[in-house]
Specification:
The chain is mainly α. It is 94% helix and 0% strand. The protein has helices at 2-5, 17-115, 122-204, 208-345, 351-542, 547-560. Helix 2 (17-115) packs parallel to helix 4. The longest helix is centred in the C-terminal third of the chain and has 192 residues, at 351-542. It starts with a helix and ends with a helix. The model is unreliable at 1-15 and 543-552 (pLDDT under 50).
Length: 561
């Protein structure tokens, strides 16, 4: 009975129970370690996911703001373009009007130049006026040239910045591709590690607790894989948003520079308008001064002609008076000669009568001579006054002629200045047209490059989404396979658990039966010992030799049992 009961204490698999428990305990400890590692990794991934979600929200808000700003800038660009077209049309109409007015003034000036006498000191006056007029124009031209150089440098700097940003964008796309490849490789390595851990855990799992832990680990693994997939997608989306934000920043910077260039162009346009208005004011001022000088010249001419006619009338009256005085003098001289002849003829009548007559005639002759001298002095004074007045009028005429010559020179210089300013205006208009065309070309080029960049980013985003979808499909398939394997393993574990439960129940039943056998054997031994003690007592009382040895051997056997 003792020999048959001893094998029932061994494990059905042939291993001692303590060794199998230690093996299961080691598996439990290892699984707990793996579970702690997985939980730590899950917590780190959750924290990273939270930070990435916050970053994604901020990026979404920034993208919405950038889109609104882009729409506003598009509207501003359309309004500025319409305003520029309208201002160009107004400028062309104003230029056409000024050109017609300039042609009319040029024809009037040619007619006036034909009517006026040729200038004397035209070269000297022209050089002086040209030096006086060209100084501000030269300064203005130098200032405009400096501004043109500044804007050309600004354009070149913007072009260099655009090339640098384009190179950075290409490098960013390449780095982004490398990061995606490295993240995919890391994900594959992590999945392989998890699969190996899962296979090792599947191989090590043997009991119900391990099965429950493995089931929980499977659920945690699925959750972690799903969260990892979501985090990868959010990370890629955040990177795409970051690239879009950087590109939007570049676009905003380009739009800012475009607005600055537009403001500078508007400021230059305002300066040109102000200078055109100043030129028109100067032209009107010169025209008004020219009209005033022409009116003064005409008035001086009329006054000079009137004074000349008055002095000619005075000279004619004086000449007539002088002629009358000469005629009266000649008449009186003839009368005196006649009287003298009469006196000579009548001298014979008597010396007394002759002397009286001669004295009377001499007195009359002295009076007539005094009158003639007075008339001669009066005529000389009138002649001198008329000559002096004529000299004064001739001086005035010469002065007016000099003023007319200076005005003609000024008019010629003004015409040359107007022609020079018109040529300069044409050059500035051509330069402005060329700058506008180059600006429009550069703007169109930048817009095209921006569209290409956005299209490339959208294509890259679409390709990344396709790749992510493919990776997600692969992961889904692998997860489906893992779920199928898990279900099969679950069924296997349930079968093992059922067998283990049946073996445990059989073990408990055998243990109960063994305990019952032990109790029954103990009772039998007690009964045997009781019987033996009674027999011993009876034998001792009967003095039977040899019986104590047998009793002692039976007692030792019972102690061993």
């Amino acid at each position: 009975m003792n020999v048959a009961a001893a094998p029932s204490t061994m494990d059905p698999s042939g291993c001692p129970p303590n060794g199998r428990y230690e093996y299961l305990l080691q598996q439990v400890v290892q699984l707990n370690t793996d579970l702690h590692k997985t939980v730590a990794l899950s917590q780190s991934l959750k924290s990273e996911r939270d930070s990435l979600q916050e970053l994604t929200q901020r990026l979404k808000q920034d993208v919405m703001r950038c889109e609104e700003r882009c729409e506003k800038m598009q509207e501003v660009l359309m309004t500025e373009t319409e305003y520029k077209v309208q201002s160009d049309r107004k400028h062309e109409a104003l230029m056409h009007k000024w050109k017609q007015q300039l042609e009319i003034k040029a024809r009037e000036f040619e007619v006036l130049q034909k009517n006026l006498a040729p200038p004397k000191d035209l070269d000297q006056l022209r050089l002086a006026i040209q030096d006086e007029v060209e100084l501000p124009h030269r300064q203005r031209t130098q200032g405009l040239q400096l501004e043109i150089d500044k804007y050309r440098e600004m354009y070149y700097s913007v072009r260099r910045d655009f090339e640098i940003l384009k190179t950075e964008h290409d490098q960013t796309i390449i780095n982004h591709g490398h990061e995606i490849e490295s993240s995919i490789a890391t994900h594959m390595v992590l999945m392989n590690d998890l699969k190996r851990q899962l296979d090792a855990a599947d191989d090590r799992a043997a009991d119900m607790h391990t099965t429950d832990k493995l089931r929980r680990m499977e659920l945690d693994k699925e959750t972690l894989v799903t969260e990892n997939h979501k985090l990868r997608q959010e990370l890629e989306l955040g990177r795409c948003k970051q690239d879009c934000e950087r590109l939007q920043g570049v676009v905003d910077e380009k739009d800012k520079k475009l607005r600055e260039a537009t403001d500078d162009a508007m400021r230059l346009r305002e300066q040109v308008k102000q200078k055109d208005l100043l030129l028109v004011d100067n032209h009107n001022l010169h025209s008004s001064k020219l009209r005033e000088l022409r009116a003064e010249l005409e008035a001086d001419k009329v006054q000079f002609k009137q004074k000349q006619l008055d002095w000619m009338d005075q000279i004619a009256s004086l000449q007539l008076a002088l002629q009358q005085s000469d005629e009266s003098f000649q008449k009186r001289e003839k009368e005196w000669h006649l009287e003298q002849a009469k006196q000579v003829a009548l001298q014979s009548h008597g010396d007394t009568h002759t002397q009286h007559t001669t004295a009377a005639l001499q007195a009359k002759l002295a009076e007539k001579t005094a009158e003639a001298a007075t008339l001669q002095e009066t005529l000389d004074g009138c002649t001198q006054r008329a000559t002096h007045a004529l000299d004064q009028e001739q001086l005035k005429v010469h002065r007016l002629q000099g003023e007319k010559d200076s005005l003609s020179a000024k008019l010629t210089t003004a015409q040359e200045l107007i022609q020079y300013l018109e040529d300069d205006l044409v050059k500035l208009t051509d330069e402005r047209t060329n700058d506008k065309q180059s600006f429009e070309k550069s703007q169109a080029h930048l817009q095209a490059q921006l569209d290409e960049t956005l299209a490339a980013s959208f294509n890259a985003r679409r390709s990344l989404a396709d790749e992510h979808k493919k990776v997600a499909d692969k992961l889904t398939k692998s997860l489906v396979k893992a779920e199928r394997k898990r279900d099969a393993y679950k069924e296997k574990c349930l079968q093992v658990h059922e067998r283990y439960k049946a073996a445990a129940m059989a073990k408990e039943a055998a243990a109960v039966q063994l305990q019952q056998l032990k109790d029954q054997h103990h009772i039998e031994i007690q009964q045997f010992l009781t019987q033996w003690s009674h027999a011993e007592d009876s034998r001792l009382s009967g003095s039977m030799p040899g019986k104590p040895v047998v009793c002692w051997s039976l007692y030792m056997t019972w102690q061993m049992i």
